[in-house]
Specification:
The chain is an alpha+beta fold. It has one domain. The strands form four sheets. A five-stranded mixed β-sheet has the order 11-12-13-9-14, with no helix packed on it. A four-stranded mixed β-sheet has the order 1-2-7-8, with no helix packed on it. A hairpin with a 2-residue loop joins β1 and β2.
Length: 288
């Protein structure tokens, strides 16, 4: 847990899980919503750095080996897989229902969809990098002893500074970032539920919604995420599949469900083709 500017490290015990698997930063069940309908499991991937498109299966993209593994010798109380499982199992069924009903029922599933967006935000490389950068600037202490204060009779905690340095400290911080990710996922819809949301749709596969390595984009002028979610100029984008994107704002929308205007859809794609992530994903090659 975190107190003030201090990170307090605590450890619980459990059998060490299997590790070294290919961990998908974007679940295959999510990427399947951006595949070519005529070729199941295949999609077009845009390499943002090289500025080129290539075709791939969902099993081979948006994945890093061992990304969610705790380090050898650590004993987490649970694994990342457990944090992901319910969302990953339910999402494809929800999308099938939404598509089948022409997205008329999207508001019935909004809380789940926002929780899913929160999960996607927390499992990205960007979230990991930002959390590690913040932790490196914090004062680090470890729980040394939990005891009963003889003066007050209340439970008290005694801390000690960390002795780890260099690679050992980086390993510890990485483990903590995985735990932090799980905590963010446990919040469900969290702060997104405080916003107003609309759904914009397209029925043309040649003019699709696309997504990227950082699928949830917060666009605005506020300096922090917390401030952005209170700023009426903020827009939050979450592509649900190639046919639809949720758009959120602290201010309400005149129309809850509508087709994309062509210029708005082009601007949305441009955001993902120019993002800080490495790749964007689409059912077909598109331009900005």
């Amino acid at each position: 847990m975190r107190v003030g500017l201090e990170w307090i490290v605590s450890v619980s015990r459990q059998t060490e899980p299997s590790r070294g698997r290919l961990d998908h930063l974007l679940p295959q069940g999510y990427l399947n919503g951006f595949t070519d309908p005529s070729i199941p499991g295949q999609l077009f991937v845009y390499d943002i750095r090289k500025q080129l498109w290539f075709e791939s299966g969902t099993t081979r993209v948006a994945a890093i080996r061992g990304f969610y593994d705790y380090s050898h010798g650590s004993d987490p109380d649970t694994t990342a897989d457990e944090a992901f499982r319910e969302f990953e199992e339910k999402f494809p069924n929800v999308v099938r229902e939404l598509v089948g009903k022409g997205f008329s029922s999207w508001q019935e599933h909004l809380d789940f969809l926002l929780g899913y967006a929160q999960m996607l935000r927390a499992r990205t490389e960007l979230f990991r990098e930002q959390d590690l950068a913040q932790a490196r600037q914090a004062t680090m202490v470890r729980v040394k002893e939990v005891f009963q204060d003889p003066k007050t009779g209340q439970t008290a905690i005694r801390y000690e500074p960390l002795t780890e340095t260099g690679a050992e400290l980086e390993t510890l911080l990485r483990n903590m970032s995985i735990t932090k990710m799980r905590g963010e996922i446990d919040k469900g819809a969290a702060f997104f539920s405080k916003m107003y949301w609309c759904l914009r749709v397209t029925g043309d596969r040649s003019d699709p919604v696309i997504t990227g390595d950082n699928p949830v984009i917060v666009e605005g002028q506020a300096p922090t995420l917390g401030a952005a979610l209170d700023d009426p100029r903020t827009l939050v984008f979450f592509p649900v599949c190639w046919q639809a994107c949720l758009v959120g704002s602290p201010g309400s929308f005149k129309v809850d469900t509508d087709s994309f205007h062509a210029c708005d859809l082009r601007r949305l794609r441009s955001r993902y083709l120019r993002t800080d992530g490495r790749f964007a994903y689409s059912p077909t090659r598109v331009s900005e």
